[in-house]
Amino acid sequence: MKVLVTGAAGHIGKNLVKAIHQDYELVLTDIKQDEELKEFGDFRQADLAVLEEVEKLAEGADAIVHLGGIATESTYEQINRNNFNGTYHIYEAAKKHGVKRIVFASSNHAVGFHPINQSIGPDAPHLPDTYYGASKAFGENLANMYHQKHGIETASLRIGSYLEKPAEHRNLNTWISVRDMNQLIVRCLEADRIGTAVHYGVSSLHNDYFDNRDAAKIGYQPEDDPDDYRDEIENVKPENVTDYVGGVFTNFGR
Predict the structure, then answer these.
(1) Distance between CA 89 and CA 50 in Å, rounded?
(2) Domains in the chain and their CATH numbers?
(3) Residue 135 · residue 186 · CB < 8 Å
């Protein structure tokens, strides 16, 4: 399978391609040059905000893992250029070249204003907490439209806290380990049919924040457990505690 990975020089992207490069033919791209990535695939520096560049990247691909864009809150102008427009260009390129599967790096911030301790599932309505979160909600909706109109399947992954290990109490519900993130993406690439699926990018199938049991249907079984770090985290003084899934992002811009 030939897979285009955007944002390949980022934290998730680089760990992913190192783990899967022997199993897939990879085309890797990022807005910044990264010589190390050339060891793991066909690296091509590109700007996702330029449609023509994205169309060249997608030619011949069987699937796209879309990790590119700005990975935190920023100005609306930056989010619009890199996330809204970049994701739109991914779908336009997929349509043009007949790419039928996309794994989209969405975010828990697409549903950030849901209260904690309600264990929301994949059907939870969008309640974004930032421009960043709104861009991820937009991407999920774009996925639905392109599936209905053009048959492109998408697994949208509402990624939680991608860290080496949990660092604060909130991470007991939002943490995903490196190997679990890699596993979840591969499961989405290999599943027979996904339609327009939504899964939570966390090292759990069910916790106080997210009901992620649908991910088990495609074979996702987390290998790491945030509860293994509970005693360590209980000694960390909570900071910027909120009553919402999105944590401190819900306070940005207020």
Answers:
(1) 8
(2) 2-251 (3.40.50.720)
(3) no
The pLDDT value given to residue 240: 64
Residue whose tokens read 């599932």: 121
Nearest to 8 by CA among 26, 27, 28: 28
Instruction: State the chain's mean pLDDT as an integer.
Output: 97
Other Cβ atoms closer than 10 A to 125: 9
Is 132 annotated as catalytic?
A: yes
Q: Is 100 exposed, middle or buried (0-12, 13-18, 19+ CB in 10 A)?
A: middle
Note the Cα 233 to chain centre separation in Å. 25
Identify the pLDDT of residue 47: 99
**Measured between alpha carbons, how far is 128 from 125 in angstroms, rounded to an integer?**
9
Nearest 5°: the CA angle 78, 67, 155 is 120
Structure token digits, residue 16: 């992913």
Q: What are the structure tokens assigned to 133, written together? A: 């979160």
Condensed to tens digits (0 to 9), the pLDDT of residues 44-98 reads 999 999 999 999 999 999 999 999 999 999 999 999 999 999 999 999 999 999 9
Is residue 9 within 8 A of residue 34, CB to CB? The reply is yes
Task: Please pick, among 132, 146, 220, 244, the residue that the annotation labels catalytic.
Answer: 132
Model pTM above 0.70: yes
d(CA 167, CA 14): 22
Closest to 67 in 3D by CA, of 5, 20, 3? 5
The pLDDT of residue 241 is 73
Question: φ, ψ for residue 210 (rounded to 5)?
Answer: -130, 135
Answer yes or no: is pLDDT of 198 > 90. yes
